Amino acid sequence: MSGTAREGRLAAEEVAEPATMAVTVRVFASLREVLGTDRVLLELPAGTPLGAVWSHLPSAAVEPPPGLRYALNHSWAAPGATLRDGDEVALILPVSAG
Amino acid sequence: MIGLVEGPIDVAALIAAVADPEHGATTVFLGSTRREGGRRAVEALVYEAYGELALTELQVIADESARRHDARIALVHRVGRVPAGEPSIAVVAAAGHRPEAFAACRHALEAVKDRLPVWKQTVYEDGGAEWLDGLGVPLRDAAG
């Protein structure tokens, strides 16, 4: 590959949208115990919605419970929210405070 | 005044935080770990919080209750192990008169139950343990 061709290819890669993004997923309570960790780093396809995170977990065989809620960067968020590279997601199982 | 605390809740400090000469009625709710001695005896409840959002939500709930009922609110939830007989949550509401004080206290407590991102694990005297979070097998509520 000539120097000019290589530079052209690099330039094209730099301007292209990344195909994947890194997202941190915080988990709690029994889901934390199932996964053996309180946070999971996922490499997801760009544009993945928040509500699709569960299906990418290592424990995807475990059905999400009814009433599962989501937080995005420490605020409540709807499952249709689009994730961005570097986001922190929290999966909020039905709560049992008090 | 809101907070997540790891040790016993200082109820007197919460009452002092809402005290005001214009607020003549004060209600205190404490939710404590029940032993459930007639069934499978409970040794403790272990509470885990999503701390960042839980602190935000405690403040939102306290502000909502205060605004709706013209009250002053103190709201604290304990995290970690809470042995039988000890409080895991305290809600203190001070208002001009008792209807508003009771209503504010009730409103804050129900909002906590509905949406505070905190989970409890029941630890039994027989050594078993169980999360109440929808993934585990739910039991009848073991506290407040």
In short:
Helices cover 20% and strands 27% of the residues of chain A. Chain A has 98 residues and is of the alpha+beta class. Chain A has a single domain, classed as Roll (Ubiquitin-like (UB roll)), CATH 3.10.20.30.
Q: Tell me what the CATH architecture of chain B is.
A: Alpha-Beta Complex
Under CATH, the topology of chain B can be stated as Aldehyde Oxidoreductase, domain 3
- The level 1 CATH classification of chain A is Alpha Beta
Q: What share of residues of chain B is helical? A: 25-40%
Largest sheet of chain B: 4 strands, mixed
Note the gap between the termini of chain B. 21 Å
Sketch the topology of chain B as an H/E string, one letter per element.
EHEEHEEEHEE
Q: Mind telling me the CATH class of chain B?
A: Alpha Beta
State the separation between the terminal residues of chain A, measured CA to CA. Answer: 66 Å
Say what the CATH topology of chain A is.
Ubiquitin-like (UB roll)
* Integer count of domains of chain A: 1
DSSP strand content of chain A: 25-35%
* CATH homology group of chain B: Molybdopterin biosynthesis MoaE subunit
Mean pLDDT reading of chain B:
93
Q: Count every beta strand of chain B, where a strand is a DSSP E run of 2 or more residues.
A: 8
Return the average pLDDT of chain A rounded to an integer: 86
Structural class of the helices, strands and pairings of chain A? alpha+beta
Which spans of chain B have pLDDT < 50 for at least 5 consecutive residues? 137-144
Shape of chain A: globular
Strand order of the largest sheet of chain A: 2-1-5-3-4
Rg of chain B (C-alpha, Å): 16 Å
